[in-house]
Amino acid sequence: MAIGLEDKKAIVADVNETASNALSLVIADARGVNVTDMTALRKLARENKVHLRVVRNTLAKRAFEGTEFACVNDALVGPSLFGFSMEDPGAAARLFKDFAKDNANFEVKALSVGGKKLEAAQIDALAKLPTREQALGMLANVMLAPVTKLVRTFNEVPTKVTRVVAAVRDQKQDAA
């Protein structure tokens, strides 16, 4: 069934709004993946705050105009499944990478983050990005390290003084 002009405009506007708010985009070819697996993928995507969309390539090209994902236009060939990461830039990449391990027919075509297009082989770089919580934990560790070292240094001074006094005491006891 053909899509009317108004429906196409609504799709383009919806995808453009999603793309404007997304942190990263992963494009995959899902031909040959069965319905049960796709349903499971959609469920995982909702849990990870990843928006999945299947849109005609011509409509996607129009929707990506004026967004940082305009760089992926040359990858829009054949059927495309778009995964937009809304909160964590690596969420869609991790989701698609894990899904591709179990489904031989699922193929990642391209990635985009920060206005730059990455090839499908670079999915590991995007998938290994830490989540927000992991990044905050790493930042806290970096900030806490100097304080911890300072406390250890301050704690060593009285310990050394105590050892010196004990050594002098032992030396005087041995001499007597």
Automatic annotation (TrEMBL):
Query: What's any GO biological process attached to this entry?
Result: translation
Per the record's keyword annotation, is rRNA-binding included, yes or no? yes
User: Could you name the domain of life of the organism this protein comes from?
Assistant: Bacteria
A Pfam entry, by short name: Ribosomal_L10
List GO molecular-function terms, semicolon-separated.
large ribosomal subunit rRNA binding; structural constituent of ribosome
**GO CC aspect terms:** large ribosomal subunit
Query: Which family is annotated?
Result: Belongs to the universal ribosomal protein uL10 family.
Name by which UniProt lists this protein? Large ribosomal subunit protein uL10
The gene that this protein is the product of is rplJ
